[in-house]
Each structure stands twice: as structure tokens, then as C-alpha cells.
Amino acid sequence: MNRILESLGWMGRYLWAGWAGLSGIFCFLAAWQAGHEIYGSFILPSPGETFAAMGLLAARPDFFAILSQSAVRALTGFAIAAGIGTVAGVLAGYSFAAMRLMKPVVTVLLGVPPIGWIVLALIWFGSSGGTAVITVIIASAPVSFAGALEGVAKRDRQLEVMAQAFGAPWFYRLRTVTMPHVLSYLFPAWTTTAGSAWKVTVMAELLSNSGGIGGELATARALFDIAQVSAWLTITVALALLTDYGLLHLLREALERWRAAGLPWGVKR
């Protein structure tokens, strides 16, 4: 019973902390409305027009199928990119030679724009859903790799030596000493990776005409339906925010609950 009450209290504090984020969203909506007043609906539909178009899209029988198609591609690419990048970065962080070897490679991979990877993936794999997944992995894995690498490289080695002196095995030291420090580098990298996954997925779908939200954007662009374009873009941003705050932030709060002990009551990050 106490554990349930503790979980409910933690969830309540987490939801209450979201008011600051909502304030930022409302400020953005106000700036969006101001831009609409200046340029008109053909250039920039108002938030009201966009939300009305979203309502029409939600009434379509294939709406959730379109969302699930893009979501599977984006989240699959994100999971694989985060997994590969994190594991490779942690391993490279323990080796100075691997660190010096991989840093230029990561810089090269990050320097290639996602549109370049999309074009190459279209040539290699054709116009299919795999193009979006492969592009997300290639474009996003270096971000997670860099975060994990920096986290391991900047760990407190004195704590690790102390744990080793007390007979703690390597995996135990990794789990209890290194990873809590690495997580503070990983979660910002994963947030960037998640946002990039949605952007790259929609871009790949648009160029490859492989359905999903990107395919619907291509159709709306051909019809010059600006309100529908804004609606699909808003839906994409909402899904990216849901991935961040509904998945990654919850995971961070669960894994880093020890940080709350060092904060004054009511203070949130």
C-alpha cells in the first residue's frame, strides 16, 4: 500500500511539474497566432484552423493506421539507434584508443545531413519503410554514441577505484558507479535522438512516398492544402513530445529518483 501511495505521489509531482512546459507551449501558440495575423491563412494557418483540420483528419478511418505506420518506423529506428549508440559509446569510453579512433568517425557521420542519408537509402533499399528506419539509425546513432562516450570518459575514476578496492566486480561497478553518472549524459542525447527520429522518418516517407505521415504531407503539398500540412506537422510534433515526456522523462524520473533527495521540496528540473 505504501508503495502504491508513493508511486501515486511521484506521478502527481511529475504531472504538476509539467505546467512550466505548458506555459512555453502557450507562448509558442501566441507567437503562431501573431504570425497568422501578419501573413494570413495561405502562408500560415492559425492554430484554430490547424486544430480544426486535425479534427477532420482524426475522423478519417485510416487516421490511426497512418500514425501507427510512422510511429513503428520512428520508434524502431530510435530504439535501435539508441541501443547501438549507447552500447558502443560505453565500450569506447573505457578505451582511450577507441575514443580517439571513433570521434572523427562520429563527426563525419553527424556532418552528413539527413537528406543525404535518405537519398542514399532510397538508392540502396528502394522506396520502402525500411528506408526511413535505416536513415534514422544512421543519422541518430552517433548522437547516443557521443553522449555515452562523454559520460564514461568523464566518470569519477576515484569512486571506481574505491569500489574496486572493496572487491566490487566490474559489472557491479558499471551499474552502481558509472551508469548513474552516464545517464546524465545519455538522456539529453536520447531526447535529441527521439526528436531526430520523428523528423527523419517523416522526411524519408515524404521523399520515398512510402505512406505514413510523410506520404500524407506529400499529398497535402500537391493539393496546396496549407491547413492540412500544418495539421500533420502539428501531429508530428505532438508525437515527438509524447515520446519525450511520456516515455523518456518518465524513464529518467524512475532511474534518477535519487536526485530528488538533493533538491529542496517542490523544486524540479
Automatic annotation (TrEMBL):
Main localization of the protein described in the UniProt heading: membrane
PROSITE patterns named among the record's database cross-references: ABC_TM1
GO biological process entries: transmembrane transport
Lipid bilayer topology: Multi-pass membrane protein
GO terms for cellular component: plasma membrane
TM regions (residue ranges): 14-32, 39-59, 71-94, 106-125, 131-149, 231-251
CDD domains referenced in this protein's UniProt entry, alphabetically: TM_PBP2 (cd06261)
UniProt keyword Membrane, yes or no: yes
Keywords, alphabetical: Cell membrane, Membrane, Transmembrane, Transmembrane helix, Transport
Pfam families: BPD_transp_1
Keyword Mitochondrion: no
Compartments reported by the entry: Cell membrane
Similarity comment: Belongs to the binding-protein-dependent transport system permease family.
Protein name: ABC transporter permease
Species: Agrobacterium salinitolerans
